Amino acid sequence: MIRTAAVTDVPVIHAMIRELAEYEKAPEEAVATEEQLREALFGAAPALFGLIAEDDTTGEPVGFAVWFLNFSTWRGTHGIYLEDLYVRPEARGGGHGKALLLELARIAVDRGYSRVEWSVLDWNEPSINFYKSLGAVPMDGWTVHRLTGDALAAAGAR
Predict the structure, then answer these.
(1) Is 67:41 a contact under the CB 8 Å cutoff?
(2) How far apart are alpha carbons 36 and 50 in whole angstroms?
(3) What is the pLDDT of residues 7-62, one digit of tens each?
(4) Within 13 Å and on the Cβ side, how many CA atoms surround 122?
(5) Which of 97, 157, 151 has its CA nearest to residue 126?
(6) Burial of 130 (0-12, 13-18, 19+ CB in 10 A)
(7) Which of 5, 42, 74, 131 would be 136's cystine partner, CB 3.0–4.6 Å?
(8) Is the dihedral of CA 150, 152, 156, 158 positive or negative?
(9) Cβ(84)–Cβ(17) under 8 Å?
(10) Residue 45: CA count within 13 A, CB half-sphere
């Protein structure tokens, strides 16, 4: 079952973000706090949206997706940027990841958005194969660039 995240889900979303960071071999980079997530998802001006995948038998959360809106100036419509999708190891293969992505696709279609997109680590073959099985294609020729840390501070101070 997929449902919209509730404020009471913040602790489990936070825990699964930490698990995802471990899986992606970068636990030291996951420094967001529960309070930051609560504000982003449920504050006065939410900029982040969440879905929860629940175990069909127990109802316990076993996965999540968090996303935000982007915009295509070429198409003139919003899109969904999937920031994180994670299913706990013991629940993988149960269709939860697929259900989360299909729900995002449904949201995009229902709202007239033109795309759902995300990034995937190039070494993560299981995820890449899963995404391809749903019809997703890599954006060859595009490279993500990022300003962060000292470089961001220096650029922002100009």
Answers:
(1) no
(2) 14
(3) 999 999 999 999 999 999 999 999 999 999 999 999 999 999 999 999 999 999 99
(4) 4
(5) 97
(6) middle
(7) 131
(8) positive
(9) yes
(10) 0
What three-state secondary structure class fits 32? Answer: coil
Torsion angles phi and psi, residue 68, rounded to 5: -145, 170
Query: Residue 44 has what DSSP assignment?
Result: S
- For residue 72, the tally of other CB atoms under 10 A from its CB is 13
Residue whose structure tokens are 């954006």:
139
Say which amino acid occupies 62.
V
User: What is the longest distance spanned by two Cα atoms in the chain?
Assistant: 55
> Among all residues, which ones are annotated catalytic?
131
Phi, psi of 116, rounded to the nearest 5 degrees: -125, 125
The two structure tokens encoding residue 156: 């922002």
Distance CA 132, CA 118 (A): 13
Measured in degrees and rounded to the nearest 5, phi and psi for residue 155 equal -65, -40
Q: What is the pTM for the complete model shown?
A: 0.92
In the numeric block, which tokens belong to residue 144?
């993500």
Residue 114, Cβ density class (10 Å: 0-12 exposed, 13-18 middle, ≥19 buried): middle
- Cα(90)–Cα(102) distance, rounded to whole angstroms? 21
